[in-house]
Structures are given as structure tokens and as C-alpha cells.
Design a protein that fits this description.
Elements: H1 4-16, H2 31-39, H3 47-51, E1 62-67, E2 73-77, H4 78-85, H5 91-101, E3 117-119
Antiparallel strand pairs: 1-2, 1-3
């Protein structure tokens, strides 16, 4: 525990330091923030855009999709996916087919049957 003299010294140092900017919740963010967000390589395309791409456009060697329901993970090489499903196949459709082909969660109800894909990026 600091002594009273040490506490006074810490308080004086804290008073000399500039206070961090406390912008109001509705205040606009600085331009530097938005520049850094837009320069981030992850901002190039959203997850929805990645799922809608054709298999032949994907640059990764291995495609990976998991099920949010049963936590299964299915991987396929991009070359094999092109060979099996064609160059113009959409990744979202191929991923759903890969999961459905080996699905263990069958209840008999259309709304509940099948896997729920979660697209992963390695």
C-alpha cells in the first residue's frame, strides 16, 4: 500500500498528464480511425461476398467449412472441389452439399434437418 506521500506524488503526476480524449458516444470518429479501418486487409470483402464467390476464384489451397450445430469440420482441396462440382460452382452451395452429404443430425423435420455451415478462413 502506498504511503500518503507517495499517493500525493502519484496524484500530482496524474494531474500533469493530459487527460485522454473522452468523446461523446454520438461524436464522429476521427478520420485517422476510418483510414486505418479501410486499410486493413480484412476490409476488402465481407463474409457474404466470400461465400458467394465461385470456387475457381478462390486462391486458397484448402477450403474449410464447419457445422455450427454438430461441430464437424469438412475440408476439401480447391482442385478437388473444382473437379467434383465444376469451376462455376458457388462456394456456399458446395459447402452446404459437403456438410449435407455426411450429416449426422437428422430429425425428420425439414426446418431442423441438416448442418448449419460456418465458413472458416485459415
Amino acid at each position: 500500500m502506498p504511503t500518503p506521500k507517495q499517493m500525493e506524488k502519484l496524484a500530482a503526476e496524474a494531474a500533469r498528464r493530459p487527460a485522454p480524449s473522452s468523446a461523446a458516444p454520438g461524436a464522429p470518429l476521427p478520420a485517422e480511425y476510418w483510414e486505418s479501418v479501410l486499410k486493413d486487409p480484412r476490409a476488402d470483402e465481407s463474409g457474404a461476398e466470400k461465400r458467394q464467390r465461385r470456387i475457381s476464384e478462390i486462391q486458397r489451397h484448402v477450403l474449410r467449412v464447419s457445422c455450427r450445430r454438430c461441430e464437424r469440420l469438412v475440408e476439401i482441396q480447391t482442385a478437388d472441389a473444382v473437379r467434383l462440382y465444376g469451376r462455376n460452382a458457388v462456394w456456399k452451395d458446395v459447402a452446404q452439399r459437403l456438410l449435407d452429404n455426411t450429416c449426422q443430425q437428422r430429425t425428420g423435420r425439414h426446418e431442423e434437418d441438416g448442418c448449419w455451415p460456418a465458413f472458416e478462413t485459415p
